[in-house]
Design brief:
This protein is α/β, with parallel strands linked by helices. The protein has helices at residues 3-9, 14-21, 24-32, 60-63, 72-83, 96-108, 122-137, 154-158, 163-166, 184-191, 216-226, 279-285, 303-318, 321-336, 339-342, 366-378, 385-393, 419-436, 442-461, 467-476; strands spanning 39-43, 46-49, 54-57, 113-119, 141-145, 176-179, 196-201, 230-234, 258-261, 273-278, 346-352, 355-360, 397-398, 400-401, 408-411. The strands form three sheets. The chain has a seven-stranded mixed beta sheet with strand order 4-10-9-8-7-5-6, sandwiched between helices.
């Protein structure tokens, strides 16, 4: 049976399979908020379900689909490699496609970044950047920012300033120091001992879409130079045109020592990440022939990923997607900003390029304040669901809450949006924000349901299940697993 026949035969089993073999909690989340759709096709910024409904994807796979889904140029590049019978992952070899992609990345990189290391994901690029920084400087400490997100493997998680992701996974890698994002005095205090290997930050924090003031990153880079610390720019999400510049650091003319990129570089098909760094850093890490393999991975330079990366860079350039992202993103933000004065809940509309956020906060009116407190008491950040859920169910727009416990709704759409798509977004946001201000109203009936479910989950979470109960369940099995607990 072919893959397409298998998909056709079992199309409607996806949620049941995930519930049994993968992550049942995610299935519960999707069903609770009405996101349990059967998608059957994807094209550009659109998803299509089995009922023929078209959805506008402003989540874009957490930023992976900068070119939209199933871009023909990427498909062609991958098909060409698959049919060419090229040698792949010989390992004791020098891959041509890897060399070509590295050459193109260096050509468009911020000044001074001369070498490239390929990995399979964003978190792997951060792990590499941490290791390279420690070896090149001979120092161990890494400074990172509160609220920052750099990945979920142990090293990158040690540099992630979000307690929600860290809880229960410690102890973490030693010598990691957290400071507030945007506070230069705290950064200088951390660096003053001249024992910090690197300062790592996202130019724009993805969780919350927090944009620093114009002095922060240039001064941070200058402080790093002053104290002999490397500056790592995590552009896993912000890179490759997302913010209306090829690299987000270009908004502030900052030249990092190491830059991490992934997500969009894949073209949406084959996982790939890259670390761009100064030549001297690379030469210190790989300083002898016997150290030529001191850091690496099995699949990092595979032909499919390299071809996808090359085709992605060509598409971004030929279709002028960086310029398009800057123009379209600015238009959406400009059209939505007047809503801040109209609606008490809406605190701010902000963004750079195709990285935008709607931030909500407690209102002043008594009735609105009471409704807000009901949701926030049940679960911090729950109000945002009154925005993202109707955007999806009523307007067929897929978006996301920007981080755990945040009342920030984030849009990171493909860079290929049309004028019609932008109008779709603006009109939908106007509608759901207005509806959320009608108390009582349909939105708040849904809000009460969410609050009730959140309180039930909180009660269940606060009632510990003895370890012995888990062990007994594992030993005896149950009906759900067909008695396979043994």
């Amino acid at each position: 049976m072919s893959i397409l026949e298998l998909i056709e035969q079992r199309l409607r089993e996806n949620f049941a399979l995930h519930e049994q073999y993968l992550n049942p909690q995610m299935v519960k989340v999707l069903r609770t908020i009405g996101y349990d759709r059967q998608y059957v096709k994807a094209e550009g910024p659109y998803l299509f379900d089995d009922r023929g409904e078209c959805y506008l994807d402003l989540l874009s796979g957490f930023g992976v689909f900068a070119l939209g889904r199933n871009h023909p140029k990427i498909i062609q590049a991958i098909q060409d490699v698959l049919t060419a019978e090229l040698p792949n992952l010989v390992q004791l070899d020098a891959s041509l496609l890897a060399g070509l992609l590295a050459e193109r990345l260096v050509a468009i990189a911020p000044p001074g970044l001369e070498r490239v290391f390929f990995a399979n994901s964003g978190t792997e690029t951060v792990e590499a950047a941490i290791k390279f920084s420690r070896y090149a400087t001979g120092r161990s400490k890494i400074v990172y920012c509160q609220g920052g997100y750099h990945g979920l493997t142990l090293g990158s998680l040690s540099a992630t300033g979000e307690s929600h992701y860290r809880e229960g996974f410690g102890p973490f890698v030693p010598d990691f120091i957290e400071i507030p994002f945007g506070e230069l005095a705290a950064l200088e205090q951390a660096l003053a001992g001249k024992d910090v290997a690197a300062f790592i930050t996202e130019p724009i924090q993805g969780h919350g879409v927090r944009i620093p003031d114009d002095t922060y990153l240039p001064t941070a880079a200058a402080l790093c130079r002053q104290y002999g610390t490397l500056f790592i720019a995590d552009e896993v999400q912000t890179g490759l045109g997302r913010t209306g510049k090829f690299w987000a650091v270009e908004h502030w003319a900052v030249e990092p020592d190491i830059l991490c990129v992934a997500k969009a570089l894949s073209g949406g098909f084959v996982p790939v990440g890259a670390v761009l760094c100064r030549g001297w850093i690379f030469d210190r890490v790989f300083n002898r022939m016997d150290r030529s393999v001191v850091h690496g991975n099995t699949f990092g330079k595979n032909n499919l990923a390299m071809a996808a990366g090359i085709a992605t860079l060509e598409a971004i350039e030929s279709e002028k997607l960086v310029e398009r992202a800057a123009f379209m993103g600015q238009q959406i933000v400009t059209d939505l900003k007047p809503l801040v004065k109209q609606y008490e809940y809406l605190k701010e509309v902000r963004g750079l390029g195709m990285m935008m956020a709607l931030e909500f906060a407690e209102p002043k009116s008594w009735s609105l304040k009471a409704a807000w407190k009901m949701l926030e008491t049940a679960n911090k950040g729950l109000f945002s669901q009154l925005i993202v859920v109707p955007l999806f169910t009523r307007h067929r727009i897929l978006s996301q809450v920007s981080g755990h416990g945040m009342n920030v709704v984030k849009f990171i759409p493909p860079l290929t949006l049309t004028d019609k798509d932008c109008r779709w977004i603006v009109e939908a946001v106007r509608d759901v924000v207005a509806d959320a201000h009608r108390v009582p109203g349909a939105a708040w009936e849904f809000g009460k349901t969410l609050a009730t479910q959140a309180l039930r989950m909180k009660t269940a979470r606060d009632t510990p299940v003895p370890l012995q109960d888990y062990q007994n369940t594992y030993r005896r099995g149950d009906a759900a697993t067909g008695g396979r607990g043994e």
